[in-house]
Specification:
By secondary structure, the chain is mainly alpha-helical. It has helices at residues 20-27, 46-49, 67-92; strands at 37-38, 53-54. The protein has a two-stranded parallel ribbon with strand order 1-2. The model has no long low-confidence stretch (mean pLDDT 82).
């Protein structure tokens, strides 16, 4: 989604239940290397394909999140909320 124009740049879908990252790989969509991608945890393998990918840091039992990690995750989610709302609208109206 383009924040300046508030328009969807591109989308891809599939029938039934499929993982987000699997749909992304099947779409064969390519991004320019200078574009920053803001993703959620469903795109774990994307960092290997696109170096400028930002995703929330995950905690584990041995490595809990620091206050800075939590703050970074919150800032990232604030940036992504618009996209998530649009995705919800698309799903709700089955577009």
């Amino acid at each position: 989604m383009s924040k300046k124009r508030k328009k969807i740049i591109c989308t891809f879908f599939s029938k039934g239940r499929r993982h987000d990252f699997r749909i992304f790989k099947e779409s064969k969509i390519k991004f320019h290397t200078e574009i920053n991608l803001l993703t959620d945890g469903g795109y774990r393998g994307l960092k290997k394909l696109h170096t400028k990918t930002q995703m929330p840091k995950r905690r584990s039992k041995k490595n809990p999140l620091t206050k800075q990690d939590k703050k970074n995750n919150q800032l990232l989610s604030k940036e992504r909320v618009i996209n998530e709302n649009v995705i919800g609208l698309l799903k709700r109206f089955k577009i």
